[in-house]
Design a protein that fits this description.
The protein is α/β, with parallel strands linked by helices. The protein is built from twelve helices and ten strands. Among the domains are: 34 residues; 137 residues, Alpha-Beta Complex (2-enoyl-CoA Hydratase, Chain A, domain 1), CATH 3.90.226.
């Protein structure tokens, strides 16, 4: 009897502890939501410093124990001298250090989904850079997108094109894919660099509309579609589609395709647009031959090359790191990992080029 009472007591204590912990987490989440005003915070990171720090750490780790202290001391002296040189830069008539006018490289990232949801954030990042960059600076955009909605990527391309209008040298680096709307964005750059097997192109337009009219008709279900305007609705999901509606829908697709072709031709006049605007894709090395890109290489290799000549800064607008956001990111990462594992079960032949 006494053992049973002890077990019940232990269970109740554990239950109270669990409930208390859950309540504590919920309170933290609520407080973080109250303190989060929804504004984005600008994060600027020196990639030169990051690379220098990593290199030193590797050197220290791979150095014999007896020589590590001497090496660390040398690094500290080197860093002190570097900061001293930066502070004592020669000043011009304006009183500003000449170093402030040295060319800089600004790095942005754009990872596009179907709706180009990152466009608003990307636009603000572009505005921030335009405000401080000089004509000697370069902007590198690491772009990854397989395209999506026409109006979404039309706006995203217009935001990227603002860098060119502002007179800034813009390099788009494509490591994986810039197709369809993604390529629409890329073609606004001064220079396009693609990894050897990055997917490039797909200059075309596609639309798919399911229609269940015959299924509804089989079950004696009528759908009334009322419109004002001859072409207010061409193809529908529920109603009966007509040949006239199909022809108009195709005309609209052709018109959108022509606008796409004109946009690409305007920014890359050397391309044979009629030959390349077939909806096909090319890999990076092939895309170079077709003048879809200007050089072949990875973004990391190019950044290392630029770091040898200039200060390189990664610019990103991020939401405040609240408790609720951290929990959400953790859950999202778990779901993403599960999805990646599931996709890994798919036969790799299904991803080969058509």
């Amino acid at each position: 009897m006494s053992e049973w009472v002890v077990e019940i007591g232990t269970f109740l204590v554990q239950a109270v502890i669990v409930i208390a912990l859950i309540g504590f987490v919920l309170v933290l989440i609520m407080r973080s939501k109250e303190s989060d005003d929804g504004s984005l915070k600008l994060n600027v990171e020196s990639l030169n410093d990051q690379r220098r720090s990593r290199g030193r750490r590797l050197r220290v780790t791979t150095t014999e124990h007896g020589a590590r202290k001497k090496l660390i001391k040398a690094f500290r002296q080197e860093e002190k001298a570097r900061h001293k040189a930066a502070k004592s830069g020669k000043s011009g008539k304006s009183g500003k250090s000449e170093q402030q006018h040295s060319p800089k490289v600004w790095v942005l990232d754009f990872h596009g989904d179907l709706k180009a949801s990152q466009t608003e954030q990307f636009a603000q990042e572009v505005s921030a850079i335009i405000e401080v960059a000089t004509a000697e600076d370069e902007v590198i955009v690491r772009l990854e997108s397989a395209g999506g909605l026409v109006h979404g990527y039309g706006l995203a391309a217009a935001q990227l094109d603002r860098l060119r209008v502002a007179g800034l040298m813009t390099t788009v680096c494509i490591d994986k894919v810039a197709a369809s709307g993604g390529y629409m964005m890329a073609c606004t750059a001064s220079h396009i660099k693609a990894a050897p097997f990055a997917v490039i192109g797909s200059i075309g337009v596609v639309a798919q509309v399911p229609n269940i009219h015959r299924l509804l008709k089989r079950h004696d279900i009528d759908v009334e579609l009322l419109t004002a305007g001859k072409y207010k609705r061409t193809l529908t999901v529920l109603g009966e589609n007509t040949q006239e509606g199909r022809e108009k829908f195709i005309d609209d697709l052709e018109n959108t395709h022509q606008l796409f072709k004109n946009f690409v031709s305007q920014h890359r006049p050397a391309m044979d647009i009629d030959k390349l605007a077939t909806g096909e894709i090319w890999y990076g090395s092939e895309a170079l031959e077709q003048q879809l890109v200007d050089s072949v290489g990875t973004s990391e290799a190019y950044l290392v090359e630029r770091m040898a000549e200039a200060e390189v800064y990664h610019v990103k607008l991020e939401p405040p790191k609240t408790i609720s956001r951290k929990i959400g990111l953790a859950v999202s990462a778990g779901v993403e990992q599960a999805a990646v594992k599931a996709l890994g079960l798919i036969d790799s032949a299904g991803w080969q080029r058509r």
